Amino acid sequence: MAKPYALKSISFTIGGTAMECWMEGYTLSATTPTLEWDSLCPSGTGSVNGVTRYELEVKGLHDWSAGQTSLGWYLLNHDGEHALFSLTDNGIQADGTLTVVPPSIGGDVNALAKFNIKFPIVGKPTFTSDPETAPRDKFAVLPGDVFPADASVTAYGQLTGAGYIPASTNTWSTGQKFTVGSVVANWSGSAWASGAHA
User: Fold this and answer.
1) CB within 8 Å of 14: residues ≥ 6 apart
2) Whole domain around residue 165: which residue ranges?
């Protein structure tokens, strides 16, 4: 079952420094050019894909406070350098190297000072699964889901009343479980049961 999510928070470091608090959005994209040709032979048309290039676009918030710790200050101070970055967003993590680009400065009167910037990425980022930040849906619980502690759940018998519903009514397989804080449970096919499925 699909689990779409609303983007609410991420983790983003550049040069080892956390910068997500100065961001209000991002897009990590890939572009692959298509190279086409025509020649004078009977079947003389064709195409081939070029080199895929990655780019990280950031929607940033200006902050010129003392201490020069903000994202804007970092970009000004490291313009043109290569920097390691790590981005974690709801179950996926991207790690790589980007080229630092300085931000624009300024804005409109009576408006938040913001900037949009595009960082070229060196090569291809490494993409890995990050289960700890994967989106969780209490109305469609899957085996392996891990939820934070819930004040309304101190025992498995309280799960249904607290709104935890399995994504499927099929009985879970041996060893499968999910957790809410310290409460561990599995789906028997008709109700929540304590611990991992036997």
Assistant:
1) 71, 74, 83, 84, 85, 98, 100
2) 136-198
CA distance 178 to 44: 59
Give pLDDT tens digits for 110-138.
999 999 999 999 999 999 987 666 667 78
The token duo for 121 is 């990425």
Q: 0.70 exceeded by the pTM?
A: no
Q: Are residues 145 and 49 in the same domain?
A: no
pLDDT digits over 138-174, tens only?
888 888 888 888 889 999 999 999 889 898 888 899 8
Cβ contact 56:26 at 8 Å: yes
Which domain-ending residue is among 132, 156, 187?
A: 132
Residue 33 in tokens? 């050019």
